[in-house]
Amino acid sequence: MKNLKKVAAICLAAAMLVPFAACSKKGNKIVMSTNAQFQPFEYYSGKEIVGIDVEIAKKIAAKVGKELEIRDVEFDSLPNELSSGKCDFVAAGMTVTEDRKKNMDFSDTYFDATQSIIVLKNSSIKSRTDLNGKTVGVQQGTTGDTYCTDEEKTSDIHVKTVKRYNKGSDAISDLIAGRLDAVVIDDFPAQKFVENNSDKIVKLDDALTVEHYAIAVKKGNTDLLNTINSVLAEMKSSGELDKLIEENKAALENS
Description:
Layout: H1 2-27, E1 29-34, E2 43-45, E3 48-50, H2 52-64, E4 67-72, H3 78-83, E5 89-95, H4 98-101, E6 104-106, E7 111-120, E8 135-139, H5 143-149, E9 161-165, H6 168-176, E10 182-186, H7 187-196, E11 201-203, E12 209-218, H8 222-238, H9 240-254
Parallel strand pairs: 1-4, 1-5, 8-9, 8-10
Antiparallel strand pairs: 2-3, 5-12, 6-12, 7-10, 7-11, 7-12
Helix pairs in contact: 2-8
């Protein structure tokens, strides 16, 4: 009877190891959520997601001694990725805003960006104020969307109609087809879109906004936030971050 009890105890212990082993395996990963439609910060090279944010994320993963896993979702789904625990952090060329600060915590900023305005070559739109009363395409959930939609009535630009797209390339297609008066999008992808369609569209010298990118974590996740800030500080002080940005910018311009 004693031996039977011992065997049963061993079997029970072995069974209990299975779920713990599964948790341990999951614990070896750190998960980043992004929207891989945003060169040069995150985009597909073949089947692999690459870019500036991915390289920073790899440094974060190495710092905590874990394997990096990347989830590619729609941009406006990113806040829910954090709140639902589907990811540990969001790196997606995300702008720090007061509204977003209510639902997530942000790292130190690592890049200053502009929201550029793209129009047809023969457009009467010559400056940001010319967007007043026009139909403008934006990528859903981005700063351009927030600024042009202006739900809180704080913007100095008053767009007549805002059309939202999951992909910036779809907005550009509608602009070329004459269904939009302009497209507002981050300057990096704007440069590439104009280069690929230089006979049809141009980027205005006048930017819509200037913004600051940071990495987001779930509200209250101070430990991870401190780790991310230490990685960014190391990359800034060594010059690695500037080099990474310039290399990716050059690759984008030459691709």
